[in-house]
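Supplementary Data S3. Sequence and structure tokens for construct A.
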Amino acid sequence: MATLQRIRNHGVFLLVIVGLAMLAFILGDVLNSSSSYFNKSREYIGEIEGQKIHYTEYENAVEQLTEVYKIESGRTDFDEDMHAQIRNQVWQMLVAKYTLQNQGEKIGMDITSDELYELCAGANPHQLITSRRMFAGQNGQFDRNYLINFLASIEIDAENAEQQANIKQAKNYWMYWENAVRLTAMQEKYVDLIKNLITANNIDAKYAAQAKQTKVSVDYAIKPYYTVADSLVKITTNDIRKIYDERKQLYKQTPNRDIAYIAFPIVPSEADYQLTEKAMQDIEEEFRTTDEVALVVNSNSDIMYDGRNYSENNIPEAYKEFAFAKGAKKNDFMALTYDEATRTFRMARLIDCGFSAPDSVQLKGIATREGEEDQDFGWFTEADLQKNIAEPAFAGKVGSRFTVALGMEDRTFEITGLTKATPKAKVAIIEQTVTPSSKTYAAIYNQANQFVVNNQDEEAFRAAAQEAQLEVESATNLQKMGNKVADLKSSRQIVRWAFNAKEGQVSDVFECGDKYIVAVLTACHDGEYRDFEDVQSSLRYEALNRKKAEYINKQIAAAKTLQEVAESFGGEVRHIDELTEDSYRFGSEGMEPAAIGTAFATAAGELSKPVRGNQGVIVLVPADVQRTDAEIDYKSEIAALNARTAYSLPYQLINNLEQNADITDNRATFQ
């Protein structure tokens, strides 16, 4: 199918989400089930504003978004992190959909079918549509003709099963972006509505203008906290707890877990090395002499033989000197060697050499249907192209054309450019990386399992690890829907265990990529706020500075002038010109809002009270406050104030909806 192939041909670019577009996602109706109420309740992955989310709905959404990523990125090899990102993104889309939908119903706001058509396929489509590269012309800009042709192509009757599958995939792709536009437009409507309610007024403008027009010059002295030795002050737990109580709202938390764990690396044994080396030795003579090179290589090597031509620029470094050596000739052989760094045995045979060919070719797709246009695809190396395209492309001349079969249709290409020919070599490579055998896996697993059997609580766990010289790692603040523990592969299973275990419990053995992991649950945090014990160390520094401020204040209690204060500080009097009420910084001292406020609250010429600042204790003497009675441009001031909030307002509004929504997240039960 030409339209879908066009998507694939442009699959080299990464998925770009415009603004908050990825919040947009409309999904199918919740599937009905004939099971009992109890069983049905177990089928729901969550509930958002009274809307139950069926597990099938969620999984269908994950599958659809995965397909969109595949089409847009041209990749299919997504790792576990990418899959976790997609799953989390789907949940956020669902939250955005149902919270905004609920709000829209309350205020009578929606996107009509006519509006949606104009936004998707009208004269001026939404940016989400115009930014899709598959709808771009040869100049790289959006071309509505491509969009119209695409929409027509997904409505045709399929002639066979393959075409039917392609049309279905293309329809799903379009439906995703159409629904994305709908919800994004809904969001934009909502933000515009609220934005007109949240606006600065004349009083705000007056204060903002006066803050800029009101200035004062200040003389001051500062005693940095770091100049007072820690040993001169004493802090208690109550001092730290006082700060904790002041900041408690900042320590809200969701349930989380702390664990400690040890790793048993799964590495090859000596027997595995010997087995791999013998396997390579056994085929060395056959590889050296066979006429069936591809068969021998592809049956024994980690690197498949596809007959490609290497240049000095793209041949693996280990074979460059061999393939391009002076005097190299056909059927030269590189004997078996071993690379310790990569645990790889390797050997190679020179299939052909002494010839030259271009490194890259520039191709253009020739239109074969009415309404289509030729399409420039750009430059490709031989490795970028599938074999049936690469062979005629690199064998032809500039201006020549060739036709190849791609799926169910033929495509014609024109060679529009070739780089200068460079020396090439055709090399067959056999590499085998030493990997752990099943016997090795079993031996290491048994070692880890024996550790679990012998150590059933945290104390025994840590003591045994120390005795065996095994490093104990820690992972804190594990979230219920967390996908990983530190950088451990496939470690979601550990998170699930941690939320079902009891404090002090030792886990079974987990296989996490190239490691076996044994963990112990060290702490459960289920309270609304983080425990004081968990944060007191981070507050100790501030408590220490508060005590130092008290110490400094006693030092200068008798000082009557700023000069006396400065001498007491062991410093000098400093000066700031034209400090304004809306200043963000106190001269070169940085962010010191308390000092700025004190400068305007203290009478001219008077010595201020000591200010406990962020960096130290500050004492100041302000001059007369200067006010400019310039006429206030209320319109400009209001516009400036609104502009300050315009950037963050959309996020704040949507986030506020979600924060106040009634949401139950049961995904951890299913993942």
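Construct B, processed identically:
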Amino acid sequence: MSKRCTFLFIFCLSVCFFRSGYAGNGEITLIHIGDLHGHLVPRPDQRDGSPTRGLSVGGLAYVYAQIKNIRKTHPNNLLINTGDTIQGSAEALYTRGDAMVDILNEWHIDAFVPGNWDFVYGTERFRELFAGARPRARWPVLAANLYYVTLYEYPETPYAKFAGQRVVSPYLIKNVGGVKVGILGLTADRGPQAVSTRVTDGFYLSPGEEELRESITLLRKHEKIDLLVLISERGLAANLDLVERNPGVDIVLSSDMHEETREILRAKSGTLLVEEGQDGTMVGELNVTIKDRKLVNYRWNPHSINTRDLRPDTATEKKIHAIRATFVKGPEFLPHVNPINGTVLRTPLDTVIGHTRIALHRANFSDRKRMPAVIEGSSHDFLADAFRASCNADVGVIRGFRYGTHIAPGPIKLEDIFHFIPIGPQIACGKMTGDQLRWQIEKSLDSALSGWVGYWGGGWVNAYAGITYSVDPGNEYGFRVSNLRINDELIDPPREYQVAGYWYIDDANKINRTTATNIRVLKDQNGSALDATDIVAFYLQTLPDKTVNPALNRVRLMKPLPKAITRNRELQPWRGAVRPNY
């Protein structure tokens, strides 16, 4: 064969390979995880009506075992993690996220979008983990709406030389299985406000809609992608709203609200949306077929992660055991310093500190008659009781955090409490008027039940000890609460009540982010700081048989929460959102 013929033959082969491999025809599997919230090991499932109720669920070794099973069956795959990873446990807290990063570094993650709780240790730590010259996390981090602040907004910014620039890449492009995939990241538009308004100092998080609109055009028209995947820690309802108003996204892999899409959600724009619950209790497998650069077919397989149906990945299990060795009973246990408040962990996490007669969690779906999670949960009732008792107060209060764990009736371990309170608050006693408390409740309800998705505050309704009330979820802000009572007496608006709740040094005049007077921060006998987990552990010691049995149903729903807009059961009552009727 002449040199000319050889050249033409090789050229034709190259053209044929290019067209067959990257002409917008092929199959690809998206493997989706999100909202892991620091849960290294399995936990019980105590959710009412859950198909895995009574089983041990989650655990990173079991999550990765399922990921490996999918990869074996579908080699053309991408593993996507949609945030809220490095917060939610003692191991994550005391290592400032290293415990989770060290494990997930071995998983070969193809793309990651940070969630609001991934900023919890401050912007410099965020850069060390995800955005520095050599970040600790060995995976691509994407967020089109995350910027360094400008000097006009924050002249004292420590990142002046980066002012106005993006912190991480907005998107990446992967060629997999004959498909050119564009992956665009949107992080939350808020940091973890419950800890401090300053943890995102130097960063600016935009709402993201403008970036989404521009990126759709860029990736479709200029990059000529075949499949556009939005990975977003904005919550399922907010993401649905975004893609309805900005068509062009094929798939949204969502996190934040901890919804479980057992059936795929299809927007009127044609976009497919999924979300994976929390704590590694679900892994999503979305198989899609692309023909002529269009998504023509899909198959959705939501995998429940539990210890009955899966065997743990051995390497991941060994790594978890090594990380936990300094936290649990044994010769390797070491004291650990809390990076947020400076308190010291001197008790192994697997120490039993009390017992419970009932399941403790805040996880019920919004269709449950008894305590839907957005309104109330037994775990938060228990914690509010502990804070109230610690101050001998009229009222105990705790924010309605969506993360947490489940504790089955029986022993309570110290690590269980850290899953409820992994953010380093202290507890303070102070005075608030009845009017302040009423409006605190109204604001909390509005941030969870507002008809405008963009106004949702990210948490659920505050939990209280000493307070009972009725709520009409359909009423407007300021008119939802009625029959508000403190210690069985109708609230007296001008009266000052003793209140106990979270306190942070950077908001020294507030309890639970509400201004209070005569504030006294609880200390130990030596005058040293106490973490809120210490307060809860001590409370358990004061109970008969160290056993808790909190009174429930402190909030009376006058009307049911809105029905689900899909066939999926929901945690957040979406129909409150202003949108077309699905």
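DSSP finds twelve helices and 31 strands in the chain. The two ends are 65 Å apart (CA to CA).
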